[in-house]
Every structure is written in C-alpha cells, then in structure tokens.
Amino acid sequence: MKALMIGAAALALTACASNEATRGAVTGGALGAAAGAAIGNNVGNGDAGTGAAIGGVLGAAVGANAASRSAPAPMNRQQYYDQRSGRYYFYDPSTNRYYYENGAPYP
Fold first, then answer.
1. What is the extent of the structural domain holding 89?
2. What torsion do the CA atoms of 93, 94, 95, 97 make, to the nearest 10 degrees?
3. pLDDT for the residue numbered 16
4. Which parts of the chain sit beneath pLDDT 50?
5. CA atoms within 13 A on the CB side of 104
6. pLDDT for residue 88
7. Does residue 52 share a domain with residue 7?
8. What is the DSSP letter of 77?
C-alpha cells in the first residue's frame, strides 16, 4: 500500500516536470516502484519495500533514457532581416530551407 501511495505521488508530480527526460524519469520510477512492490511482495521473503526501491531506481533510469532519446532537438530560430522585403526570416535545419517568421517560405 505504501508503494502504491508513493507511485501515485510520483505520477502527480509528472505534470510539474519541466522537460521530457524528467517526466520520463518520474513516470518510469513510479511504474517501476509499483511493479517492484508487486514482485517483491510475491517473490522471495515478501519484502515489498525493497522491491519498490529497486524497481523505482531501474524504472527512473529507463524512463529518463527513453524520453531523452525521443525528445526532438530544439530548433535554432535565429532570425535575419531582409532589407528588400522588410521582414525577418530564419533557417530550419530539418528541412534545409528558409522561412519568414510567420512560417511562410522565404524565396
């Protein structure tokens, strides 16, 4: 029961996480703690607390790693001024093209 309460608190904190890796670590830790508590309670000497601690640590590591790999790289939105049109534009490295600040293609 104690591990379930810890897991619920960790999931509630997931909404407060600032980036994907942190959110993945919190979610993975909570799910790992819940699974570890269930396994620890039913296997060996029935120690749910130890199972929850081990599962939480492993789940946090796996969750942070998975989330950091799936998060997109931030785009460099440095803008340049086009004197001819009087508008700002930027370069998008994912498409290898230039765009105006409103998203329209730059000629």
1. 74-107
2. -20
3. 54
4. none
5. 5
6. 94
7. yes
8. -
Please give the DSSP secondary-structure letter assigned to residue 75.
P
Please tell me the total count of domains within the chain: 2
- Tokens standing for residue 20: 């994907």
**Do 78 and 98 have their domain in common?**
yes
pLDDT at residue 12, rounded to an integer: 54
Q: Containing H/E element for 80?
A: strand 79-82
pLDDT at residue number 72: 62
pTM: 0.42
What pLDDT does 99 receive?
92
60 in the same domain as 26: yes
Q: What is the rounded distance in angstroms from the CA atom of residue 48 to the CA atom of residue 34?
A: 9
**Is residue 39 within 8 Å of residue 49, measured between CB atoms?**
no
